[in-house]
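Cont'd.
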Amino acid sequence: MNLMQANSRVLPRSCECDNGTPDTFNSTLESPISPFGRPELGVTYEVPARSGRAVRVNRGEVLRVTNTHGTQVCDLWAFNAENLSEFYSSEHTRGSTYRVNPQAGDVLLSNRRHPILTFLEDTSPGIHDTIIAACDLARYRVLGHDGYHDNCSDNLRQALMAIGLRTGEIPQPFNVWMNIPIHNDGAVTFEPCLSKPGDYVDFRAEMDCIVVMSACPMDINNINGLKTLELHFSVHAEHASIA
Amino acid sequence: MNLMQANSRVLPRSCECDNGTPDTFNSTLESPISPFGRPELGVTYEVPARSGRAVRVNRGEVLRVTNTHGTQVCDLWAFNAENLSEFYSSEHTRGSTYRVNPQAGDVLLSNRRHPILTFLEDTSPGIHDTIIAACDLARYRVLGHDGYHDNCSDNLRQALMAIGLRTGEIPQPFNVWMNIPIHNDGAVTFEPCLSKPGDYVDFRAEMDCIVVMSACPMDINNINGLKTLELHFSVHAEHASIA
């Protein structure tokens, strides 16, 4: 199946899809940064609003993700490029960092407890989330949306398909800049980002990775300030080489 | 491969195993409650110390899990009996309950956002964990243990294999009675259970489920009070029918 054929398929909107198949498609499927997701080092790429992108980040390289407007959440996943069943796992990382959410300096572990990314630098206030699942079509239905809605789960599926890959599941993402305070009584609330335009986070790959970023299309609750905007990213040979 | 053959296999202790294959085996593999995991209603079964058990709980039936000694954590998973790739998901549930950890009255969702269990009743102080991954061999190595150590991930794999099933992954468990306070600065600590002997939790199945329970064998940190003890469970036709 080529991309055009794939794009012409609109699957039943039943939320009963196999975890690896999007409910329908947006432009993410047709616009990889390159056929296999390999970036040109030092070049800035866009994650368009409401869309996703996959990028290969080799061991030792550094990925910078920029919150261009300051108000946009980025759902981020990291997979072992050699074995997509190994991926960043917040629940395994917590047993090592003894924190609910990561902060700059933390080594992030995979579901096999291998270092997969090191969170090197963070110019934002450091508010990120790792306890809320990626949005999906079922989520928007519950929130009252009728018909298809772009969503981070389908963006992950499509961003991988766009470079010829497929995941069997939707792992818990690292929701960069997503502001989900955990209150003393265990309640959680969904709040706007506390970052500012141009804030960035840097991650060093500790194994050859496929990283997927989704510019979260949530426009019903306030996590993106009710606007859905683009993000940017770049890959660099090493941290010191970033201009 | 029959169970005896399976039991005679001791796989390399590399922590590099496929997620569906235990690193080695304990008695869990040889001692299902019945060949396909179907319980006799109203009968109390044991989860022996450091071991796991799988049980089929049909839609509408109620599972009671009892903390016999009060100090023992139970890692618990619920899978759709018709499709093991659908399972209880804490991160999807939070988007519905707006709480970090469940409490009695909550409907627990699967990774497809379908109701899978309803948490009906809890006689304990209500302290449970859903943010820390199941222990595995790699975890015990990091904590300084040399050689094989019973672990909840292998208990899940073996409890399913004992009834002829296999999971491709180790989902985030519902860690019943596990006391992992989240402090105001985002730090988490590993503390002893706050439950008392005989405390129980009741769950109603909202679809036909395979539930797996592991009596967590952690004996290095203090979550089980440095003792690893047995748990008990029973399945009932309905909540009102429990004696």
